[in-house]
Amino acid sequence: MFLTLNKDVAKDLYQKPQVHIKGIIGDLSLTLGQDQFRDLLSILSNISIAESYGKYLACKPQESLTPKTAKPYWHWAIGCVVRDVAKKRKLHWNKFNSFFQDRKRYIELYCQKLNAPWLSDLGKKDSQELNDLEDKYDYNDVVYFRNCAVALTRKQFRNQPVILRSEIPKQSNRFSRWFGGKKKEDIKPVSLTDTEVAYLFLRVGSGEEIVYDETESKEKLPLDFNQIQVCFFFFFVLVVAVPFLIDKKKQKKNSYFTDKKKKKKKMSQK
């Protein structure tokens, strides 16, 4: 085993690791406590969120940010915003509707891959459907769908660690104390209404950490969420429905005049 220690990481502008270990390990065994395991999941979740911004890093300036190099960074930031705005302007009702339907279906399927004891394992047909949905959407959408599925399962699981079924240790009895020593069939999920689930996904999209609180009221939602629902309705009417109806009306009007011109032309030919 070889160990290389970089004593001055600032000298290389933090481009080289401080400790570099190279070797061959035949067997590695780790014992994690409940808090350590949750912290590890939190780190992995933060890494996934950081990677979700990968589309912005492709055109990021290579030089370090200084007062002299601020201009390229401003061009980069404005370009990212302009690209996102242009992409959102291409929104159509059909895509808008299918996105929410696909999100709901993806979350249902992906929750079956997680360690939710009240759900059955994912079958081959469902696995193929899940893969098809992942091929349909880009990386950031898939990360968002998965974060929603993890948040939903964590909420239903009363903040117990959420991992993939394939990652559950074989000696699961060692971890049974984490779940209160209950048997699989005795664990029941926390029931959530459709409105609560919608609010949960909204919080996930805003980057908020989801934590189960047994004292929170299930019936009362924040006023701002109700306001968001009203604003969303007006947004849909003004941005999606109205332009769609106007286009339909224009098409109908144009087709009417086109047909009228054709009739006149036929009459004149006769």
UniProtKB/TrEMBL annotation:
Q: Which GO terms describe its biological process?
A: protein retention in Golgi apparatus; protein targeting to vacuole
Please give the InterPro entries that the UniProt record associates with this protein. Answer: VPS13
Q: Which keywords accompany this UniProt record?
A: Membrane, Transmembrane, Transmembrane helix
Give me the segments passing through the membrane. Answer: 227-246
Q: Which family does it belong to?
A: Belongs to the VPS13 family.
Protein name according to UniProt? Uncharacterized protein
Q: Which organism is it from?
A: Reticulomyxa filosa
